[in-house]
Amino acid sequence: xxxxxxxxxxxxxxxxxxxxxxxxxxxxxxxxxxxxxxxxxxxxxxxxxxxxxxxxxxxxxxxxxxxxxxxxxxxxxxxxxxxxxxxxxxxxxxxxxxxxxxxxxxxxxxxxxxxxxxxxxxxxxxxxxxxxxxxxxxxxxxxxxxxxxxxxxxxxxxxxxxxxxxxxxxxxxxxxxxxxxxxxxxxxxxxxxxxxxxxxxxxxxxxxxxxxxxxxxxxxxxxxxxxxxxxxxxxxxxxxxxxxxxxxxxxxxxxxxxxxxxxxxxxxxxxxxxxxxxxxxxxxxxxxxxxxxxxxxxxxxxxxxxxxxxxxxxxxxxxxxxxxxxxxxxxxxxxxxxxxxxxxxxxxxxxxxxxxxxxxxxxxxxxxxxxxxxxxxxxxxxxxxxxxxxxxxxxxxxxxxxxxxxxxxxxxxxxxxxxxxxxxxxxxxxxxxxxxxxxxxxxxxxxxxxxxxxxxxxxxxxxxxxxxxxxxxxxxxxxxxxxxxxxxxxxxxxxxxxxxxxxxxxxxxxxxxxxxxxxxxxxxxxxxxxxxx
Length: 533
Fold this sequence. Notes:
The chain is an alpha/beta fold. It has helices spanning 61-64, 67-72, 83-111, 126-134, 224-238, 251-264, 281-292, 294-297, 300-307, 324-330, 351-358, 377-382, 413-420, 437-451, 491-507, 514-531; strands spanning 2-7, 16-21, 24-30, 53-55, 78-82, 136-139, 145-148, 151-157, 165-173, 176-182, 205-209, 242-245, 275-279, 318-321, 337-341, 365-368, 387-390, 393-396, 400-403, 429-433, 455-456, 463-465, 470-473.
């Protein structure tokens, strides 16, 4: 019974943890790395075809984005997630695949001019995403689910995103039972729309995030309505647009919630009946999923509006751009307006087109409303860069750059401490992950020195024996190397993945009858004979 740390260790993205227990191989999250990487991650300890289950904390791509890659490499197990997470993954994983395929097509088109540039391949395809989605098992909050003999889980609302959860995992092996709690991303308190994080009372071990483990958002809740109204009034008075790079799922719906209130209370006078464009097909679909899951996930304030037959995230002059023609038409409209578009860190998607049209205009405002990872275009703009390159063109940064401070889906240091202090008895070990290098160390030290926890910030590759409570191996920081673009879409890589899947099936063939085993062996040998010539 062991736990291995794979991703988001001393880094913020690419969350992935591996459990081996009861003869099963399990991943908790398998996220895509975003922004700049500083350390190498180990590979998943077994072939993807040998993974039996994935437990998914939430739908954000830094937790879910590599699941189609896992499928493409031979994984055929079940993915357990909450109902809302399953719904959101159905759009987010397809969208992620589409973006990668579009990016690959664009790069290859450019690469034709240089015969020395190798063909660029996407990490996975839309077909891989579709097949992954079919393997998701939707689950209710607060219900204990028996996965197999010796393994049970329960999802608890963690208040970070619609459907987000911490996951309790009970493992029983050789009459020894250990319970691990994976925090997922712990939500901020008093967010619009969704409920506050719910605590868990008992655990032997805790794996918890530390994204904002070194900072305090604010002693008092910021007045987002007032601040956003001021930004809209000032920008519209200049004749400019307010462009909001926003994550399509979660943050976009929160901004719509604020704007509905601003419009209802007539707080913007410079252009009283202003238009708001949501230019992201995924954001449009996600908004519908928020509506579908409102009874389970909305907080009391949002539900009060629903009971009055008021849609908390809709209002007059809200326009949804789906097609590329509708997207292009937004910048042909000269009237001051709000443009909300993904991606939130400005590294992909339609937001880059809107930055190209508005970033150089002094009358406009670019309003950031979410975390910007180091190495992303969004982080560069927030940090004060004078120019950015978009679609091969250098664009001057002359628009006003603003941020809604304190608006975060992540708990701050106090919120993290409040969550871990919710356990009735201190866990035997608290593993600190999902934070920048210095943050994981400083937060672990804070928990040790100020609160008496046995806290440790593992590097990728760390292995821990859950029964003995001892390290099998401590990972070490391995500086990132230049990554070679590889892909499961490459024919040879697909062949290797198919071979790994065949090995996995053979390994699980113990339950077959001797007759079926013999038939299976004959089929494999016949196939080998066909190509071994």
